[in-house]
Amino acid sequence: MAEETLPGTADDDGPDSIVLHVDMDCFYAACERLREPELEGEPVVVGMGYEPGEGHGAVATASYEAREFGVESAQPISTALERLPRIDDLGPDDDPAAAGHYRTVDLEFYKSVAADVKAILHDCADVVREVSIDEAYLDVTDRTAWDLAASGDRTLAEGFARYVKQRIAREVGVAASIGVAPNMSTAKIASDFDKPDGLVVVRPGEVRSFLAPISVEEVHGVGPVTARKLGSLGIDTAGDLAEADASVLEAEFGSRGRELHERARGYDDRAVTPTGRPKSLSRESAFTDPRDDIEDKREVVRALAADVADRARSRGAMYRTIGIKVVVPPFDINTRATSLSGPVDDPELVESVALDLLDAEFAETTVRKLGVRVSKLSFADADQSSLDGWESAEAGETGGDGDERVSDEREATAGDDGDDEPPNTGGEAPSRGGQSSLVEFD
Ligand code: DCP
Ligand code: MG
């Protein structure tokens, strides 16, 4: 049977792909711990609307300590509070070990942390598909290999993934779980397999045996309804699904049935396509020590404005909004923007608008970081033939030696367009020249 070719026994033209799926652990809670290190090791619940009198909110996430008490994402806050009382509400006789720290969602802050993480991801891979605030796929086939490292039975790909994980931990201070596999769906299952702080590597020849015991619900594309239907057919695991008769699956679920069958067998030939065109271009720069001198601040804004305008021009992007970001210590993020009557490509205007916005409100303010952004982009070359950024980005290097330093100066990358962009619509180029790395501020 022709279809019996094993995953990994490349019957195609190239080597097996190496895909990383990176998903941050209890992400919002991890962000809260960044600014409140005393929450480390404590049950932390992040949610909306749990303040007294509101009572209708839901849990966004819970730290793994809070999950032990049965608190989980999307749960009503009232249920969470029953399972894990708020530490501030305890009476003198209550047990503080059975209470949690509740924090309100602060998306702006989480986005800024996510941007720092994504900057590292773009630095580590030529192709990054950002799926959500805390999740991305990386195709690193050209950066590493499935070969064993000289030292023993680990693959070079594992070492590379460990390096990515360590950079995120060291440079941003949050934990990621990473799955490494020859395709996207297996990498996603692998990243979830050993959370938190997981690193699970599924080598090309191991995909099917890795998937076999996994519940069908974990197979990409199987929702609760499909899982129930599969269950009624006696198909509970990916192994059962792989062994099932493809024609029966097709009769039950149409072409999707065949696709699920293939995924369960370890086939998933979707290429990792980069997230779509940027919604904005931005660049930001941090001071080593916070500054209040207006000339220092203006000088930085001028340089950032010139850089952003330059990059917009090189990408063929016109913009209708020009904005600045001002971060006041420790993490107070202010953004201001001016909208124009139509799209322009005008570097001088970027500089003058950015300086006006700075002068108007922040002349005296002590700042930690400044940024300039152009947004409401439109692209002149609808055929997208010149993806110059992607090509020139090849020159960068990211070793697996863990020795790379990131400066405080950061450069913009694609806005997070979600996961439903048409594939191959190009994208903002991660430039890895000099001391820059990538960040967005939206
Ligand atoms: N989120 C939310 N509401 C949900 C699910 C998630 O607001 N119903 C937010 C909070 C999460 C973030 O999205 O921190 C990322 O979602 P994940 O599903 O990746 O969950 P976590 O990162 O919190 O936990 P895990 O360690 O399981 O990945
Ligand atoms: Mg997560």
UniProtKB/TrEMBL annotation:
<dbReference type="InterPro" id="IPR053848">
    <property type="entry name" value="IMS_HHH_1"/>
</dbReference>
<dbReference type="Pfam" id="PF00817">
    <property type="entry name" value="IMS"/>
</dbReference>
<dbReference type="GO" id="GO:0005737">
    <property type="term" value="C:cytoplasm"/>
</dbReference>
<dbReference type="InterPro" id="IPR001126">
    <property type="entry name" value="UmuC"/>
</dbReference>
<feature type="binding site">
    <location>
        <position position="134"/>
    </location>
    <ligand>
        <name>Mg(2+)</name>
    </ligand>
</feature>
<keyword id="KW-0515">Mutator protein</keyword>
<dbReference type="GO" id="GO:0000287">
    <property type="term" value="F:magnesium ion binding"/>
</dbReference>
<keyword id="KW-0548">Nucleotidyltransferase</keyword>
<dbReference type="Pfam" id="PF21999">
    <property type="entry name" value="IMS_HHH_1"/>
</dbReference>
<feature type="compositionally biased region" description="Polar residues">
    <location>
        <begin position="433"/>
        <end position="442"/>
    </location>
</feature>
<feature type="site" description="Substrate discrimination">
    <location>
        <position position="28"/>
    </location>
</feature>
<keyword id="KW-0460">Magnesium</keyword>
<keyword id="KW-0239">DNA-directed DNA polymerase</keyword>
<keyword id="KW-0479">Metal-binding</keyword>
<dbReference type="Pfam" id="PF11799">
    <property type="entry name" value="IMS_C"/>
</dbReference>
<feature type="active site">
    <location>
        <position position="135"/>
    </location>
</feature>
<comment type="subunit">
    <text>Monomer.</text>
</comment>
<dbReference type="InterPro" id="IPR050116">
    <property type="entry name" value="DNA_polymerase-Y"/>
</dbReference>
<feature type="region of interest" description="Disordered">
    <location>
        <begin position="259"/>
        <end position="292"/>
    </location>
</feature>
<keyword id="KW-0808">Transferase</keyword>
<comment type="function">
    <text>Poorly processive, error-prone DNA polymerase involved in untargeted mutagenesis. Copies undamaged DNA at stalled replication forks, which arise in vivo from mismatched or misaligned primer ends. These misaligned primers can be extended by PolIV. Exhibits no 3'-5' exonuclease (proofreading) activity. May be involved in translesional synthesis.</text>
</comment>
<dbReference type="InterPro" id="IPR043502">
    <property type="entry name" value="DNA/RNA_pol_sf"/>
</dbReference>
<dbReference type="InterPro" id="IPR043128">
    <property type="entry name" value="Rev_trsase/Diguanyl_cyclase"/>
</dbReference>
<feature type="compositionally biased region" description="Basic and acidic residues">
    <location>
        <begin position="402"/>
        <end position="413"/>
    </location>
</feature>
<dbReference type="InterPro" id="IPR036775">
    <property type="entry name" value="DNA_pol_Y-fam_lit_finger_sf"/>
</dbReference>
<feature type="region of interest" description="Disordered">
    <location>
        <begin position="383"/>
        <end position="442"/>
    </location>
</feature>
<dbReference type="InterPro" id="IPR017961">
    <property type="entry name" value="DNA_pol_Y-fam_little_finger"/>
</dbReference>
<dbReference type="GO" id="GO:0006261">
    <property type="term" value="P:DNA-templated DNA replication"/>
</dbReference>
<feature type="binding site">
    <location>
        <position position="23"/>
    </location>
    <ligand>
        <name>Mg(2+)</name>
    </ligand>
</feature>
<keyword id="KW-0963">Cytoplasm</keyword>
<keyword id="KW-0238">DNA-binding</keyword>
<keyword id="KW-0227">DNA damage</keyword>
<feature type="domain" description="UmuC">
    <location>
        <begin position="19"/>
        <end position="223"/>
    </location>
</feature>
<dbReference type="InterPro" id="IPR022880">
    <property type="entry name" value="DNApol_IV"/>
</dbReference>
<comment type="similarity">
    <text>Belongs to the DNA polymerase type-Y family.</text>
</comment>
<keyword id="KW-0235">DNA replication</keyword>
<feature type="compositionally biased region" description="Basic and acidic residues">
    <location>
        <begin position="259"/>
        <end position="271"/>
    </location>
</feature>
<protein>
    <recommendedName>
        <fullName>DNA polymerase IV</fullName>
        <ecNumber>2.7.7.7</ecNumber>
    </recommendedName>
</protein>
<dbReference type="GO" id="GO:0006281">
    <property type="term" value="P:DNA repair"/>
</dbReference>
<dbReference type="GO" id="GO:0042276">
    <property type="term" value="P:error-prone translesion synthesis"/>
</dbReference>
<keyword id="KW-0234">DNA repair</keyword>
<dbReference type="GO" id="GO:0003887">
    <property type="term" value="F:DNA-directed DNA polymerase activity"/>
</dbReference>
